[in-house]
Amino acid sequence: MQEKQATIYLDNASTTSLDSKVLEAMLPYFKEQFGNASSIHALGQTARVAVEKAREQVALFLNCKESEVYFTPSATFSDNLAILGVVRVAQKKGIKPHIITNVIEHPAVLEPIKHLEKTGQIEATFLPVYQEGIVKVEDVERAIKSNTCLVSIMQANNEIGTIQPIDEIAQVIGNFRGPKKYPLFHTDAVQAANYLDLNVEKLGVDLLTLSGHKIYGPKGIGVLYVKQSTLLEPIVFGGHQEAGLIPGTENVANIVGLGKAIELVKSSKLKVQSLRKLRDKLIDGILKEIPQTFLNGSREQRLANNANISFKGVEGEALLILLDQAGIAVSTGSACSSGSLEASHVLMALDCGKERAHSAVRFSLSKNTIEKEIDYVLNVLPKMVEHLRKISGFKV
Amino acid sequence: MYYSKTILKRFLSPKFMGKITKPDGVGNTQNLKCGDVMKIYLKVSKKQGKEVISEIKFETMGCGHAIASTDMICELALGKTLEQAKKIKFSDVALKLGQMPPQKLHCSSLAQYALQQAIFDYEKKHLKPKATPKKN
């Protein structure tokens, strides 16, 4: 609720808290070092150095060249640039381009593709993900055509945390591509960055999206890794910044923050095992203590911090509000909270029925989550579910 | 999503939740789009020759606004004659709850429909139907 500050924050797939080391790194660039990174004078050059240092930090993390790292205003912008930018170049070949994606992508990927399809500019294939929430490599293989210019498959899903076989998909694409330029392979790695290996060489991707605020960095900053910039055209026009691909004065403080945040991911990755243990305690505790509860998406191929669970006979938003009253922040895929009255497209794609989507709650842990917090959730949750089932008349 | 204090209070401790074991009328309705389900149970007794709602309970599988809406419509309908109760509109519910976000108005309209269905069910069993419920 708006009056009460959440004390147990389990909504880290929505956004993470800013790491204090990140904040510290950012602070000088708001006031003392306010220069424009494009200015020639000393103030400008200090800002430039800071931006380039962040680029180096990102390049190190992705195992790529610094010239392949582009800063964007958001991950949504990165996804749009990857898709629209590639299509603009591909269209010049005189063939209607084809894009392959899947049904559980983030709207930042799905919507530009749907827009291009609706306006007759491309052909699109939306692959299924089955009950486990995972794309089948052979489906990608079957879908590739001679006019396929781009395959866009997220590394890990934001709602159910399922991990896609990116390196295997890259291999299939590589086999088809041979010495040709297309298809290119894009992955939205926004949710994966904290937990998985994002070495672009190993993954075999041509384009990769990152976000600042999912890795304990600032909001309003993203990255697009671009292997070959000649295969991409800008989608907005202006100055020469980011090699003309993303015009607009660099957001120096945010760029510095993202660089620092990405540097810190390495140390937080050491804690992934203990985080997974906590998450497993939460999942097992709920499934064991509360009857008629179900985990959505694959248990094994899943990010270490994600638990997405349906509580039969309970509507997700109602449970969210009860949890919020107890100081626990989560999110839901329920239609009630979507604004459009449509249940989450991700949960609906799992083919488990509308009711299960309607009763789903996502718990996403962070590097700061402690066992005491999970114990508290497991302590208060059964009574809340019982209360709501009493109201709904659901008999276990 | 905004939850006003009134709605929160109703949602956290609804006054009319539950089931009537031998109801005179039951309304069972579902919003096919969002998936919310509402049930309203009625007991009707005669008072000075008029049929009056003497007991009312609900079961709702839905969000806080849906639960608060059903609870409020039960309160508005209790003690009313069937003719009066039929005239209760979703806007009356929303007005009573105060500060209902526009995207949640359909919750109160589902509650109106559930009540009308319960009355219709009673009339079907006990009298000749006078009117079919209209969905708003």
Molecular structure report:
- Chain A: GO terms for molecular function: cysteine desulfurase activity; iron-sulfur cluster binding; metal ion binding.
- Chain A: Its EC number is 2.8.1.7.
- Chain A: Its cofactor is pyridoxal 5'-phosphate.
- The complex is a heterodimer of chains A (396) and B (136).
- Chain A is an alpha/beta fold and 396 residues long.
- Chain A has two domains: 8-17 and 271-392, Aspartate Aminotransferase, domain 1; 33-267, Aspartate Aminotransferase, domain 2.
- Chain A is 40% helix and 14% strand.
- Chain A contains 13 helices and 13 strands.
- Chain A has a seven-stranded mixed sheet with strand order 2-8-7-6-5-3-4, with helices on both faces. A four-stranded antiparallel sheet of chain A has the order 9-10-13-12.
- In chain A, helix 1 (20-26) packs antiparallel against helix 8, helix 2 runs parallel beside helix 8 and helix 3 (75-91) runs parallel beside helix 4.
- The longest helix of chain A is centred in the last third of the chain and has 22 residues, at 371-392.
- Chain A is globular.
- The two termini of chain A are 29 Å apart.
- Chain B has 136 residues and is α+β, with helices and mostly antiparallel strands.
- Chain B has a single domain (5-126), classed as Sufe protein. Chain: A (Alpha-Beta Complex).
- Helix content of chain B is 42%, strand content 21%.
- Chain B is built from five helices and three strands.
- Chain B has helices at residues 5-12, 64-77, 82-86, 90-97, 105-126; strands at 25-30, 37-47, 50-61.
- In chain B, strands 1-2-3 form a three-stranded antiparallel sheet.
- In chain B, strand 2 and strand 3 (50-61) form a beta hairpin.
- In chain B, helix 1 crosses helix 2 (64-77), helix 2 (64-77) crosses helix 4 and helix 4 crosses helix 5.
- Chain B starts with a helix and ends in a 10-residue tail after the last helix.
